[in-house]
Specification:
19% helix; four-stranded parallel β-sheet; 8 helices; alpha/beta; globular
């Protein structure tokens, strides 16, 4: 367990926290006017290996070789010049700070962090963190790595659960959920939609699936994976009989014979489950544990409209489950964010799919994933 203290005066700025992996959807911007919940669970923190927030530089302002040195292998619209290694926590775990009013940024409904640190240490007034709670952004506080120190404290921090324990006790991520929006005079409103966490996880995984495809058609497992991935893969890869097959793999599952394996990410350590034996050479596509668990044990129905009538001898379950108003869309920003950080994106066919950042995006990509 750790508390984070002001690097300038030593004042405590957080409750005791334990470290976990940064969620895949940490950099997601979802919808328009949407109220996303808190990113991190209470009592936890994660370290973001990449800079986030302003100041920004456009691609034309980046020096040759600088982007690749930062792990970016294809053009992007802009790069953040913020400090690396921010500590991401839940807003409720902050102590001893105050907001800096003049650092509101260009936010719409809250704070977006565009002007840099907007929270100061109450004891010495040093800028120490950036609070983010604007619409369409996951709510979080990002402690500056150069503004805080990590101090060990007494407290129990059990060893990470084994893969078998995670498979048995892990919590699946629902495919659909109610989305809160900023309402009019009557206050907030809601609509039923695909889960933003699922859309971000699918964008992250789709980038890996394309690299694993080697430009050949790919077939994913029947069921939820088909609904989530197959339409995008069919739009982005050549038509024809599938030459590469993807399968689910992980703890408590039989070893599949496949070229591509959909495997879980450990929520605490961030490590990817690794197979043994003949499947060890397969390409591993990482999925958040909750998403992987839903693929392994899907709900009894797929949340899409069905044709035909209900048989007479079937008992109705009223009210009927709510359905999203559209087919599943993969989060394009997460997809692009992931793909440009995979060295294989240097291949001409992947560069064509990626298109030009910010304007001339590939038509196939527009059809396959959300704008």
């Amino acid at each position: 367990m750790f508390v984070f203290v002001c690097a300038e005066c030593g004042a405590e700025l957080t409750t005791p926290l334990s470290q976990v992996a940064l969620p895949v959807h940490a950099h997601q911007s979802y919808g328009n006017g949407v109220q996303l919940p808190v990113l991190m669970r209470a009592g936890t923190f994660a370290v973001d290996p990449e800079p986030w927030g302003g100041p920004w530089r456009t691609w034309d302002e980046i020096e040759p070789g600088e982007a690749e040195a930062r792990g970016i292998h294809a053009p992007v619209h802009a790069l953040s010049d913020a400090t690396l290694g921010a500590v991401v926590i839940a807003p409720g775990d902050v102590r001893g700070t105050r907001l800096i009013p003049e650092k509101r940024g260009e936010s719409c409904c809250g704070l977006d962090g565009a002007d840099g640190p907007n929270m100061a240490c109450e004891a010495c007034d040093s800028p120490v963190a950036t609070r983010v709670d604007d619409c369409s952004l996951w709510q979080a506080v990002r402690l500056g790595s150069d503004a805080v120190d990590r101090v060990p404290v007494d407290g129990t921090h059990p060893a990470p659960l084994s893969w078998t324990e995670l498979a048995e006790t892990g919590e699946a991520t629902p495919l659909c959920e109610p989305i809160a929006t900023w309402g009019g005079r009557s206050g907030t409103d809601h609509y039923w939609s695909w889960s933003p966490r699922w859309e971000a996880a699918a964008g992250h995984a789709l980038a890996h699936l394309l690299v694993a495809s080697q430009g050949q058609p790919v077939k994913v497992p029947e069921g939820v994976a088909t609904e989530v991935f197959q339409r995008a893969l069919d739009a982005l890869l050549p038509a024809g009989a599938p030459k590469r097959r993807a399968a689910l793999a992980g703890p408590e599952l039989p070893s599949p014979d496949a070229d591509i394996l959909l495997v879980p990410i450990h929520p605490r350590t961030g490590r990817i489950w690794t197979p043994e034996g003949p499947t060890a050479s397969a390409y591993l596509v990482p999925l958040p544990l909750g998403v992987w668990l839903t693929l392994v044990s899907p709900p009894p129905y797929l949340p899409v409209p069905a044709s035909g009538r209900m048989p007479r001898d079937v008992l109705r379950d009223d009210p009927l489950p709510l359905l999203p108003h559209s087919p599943f869309w993969i989060d394009r920003r997460t997809f692009e964010h992931t793909l440009v950080r995979l060295p294989a994106v240097r291949s001409p066919w992947l560069r064509t799919i990626l298109g030009n950042p910010g304007h001339n995006t590939s038509p196939d990509l527009v059809q396959a994933v959300a704008p």
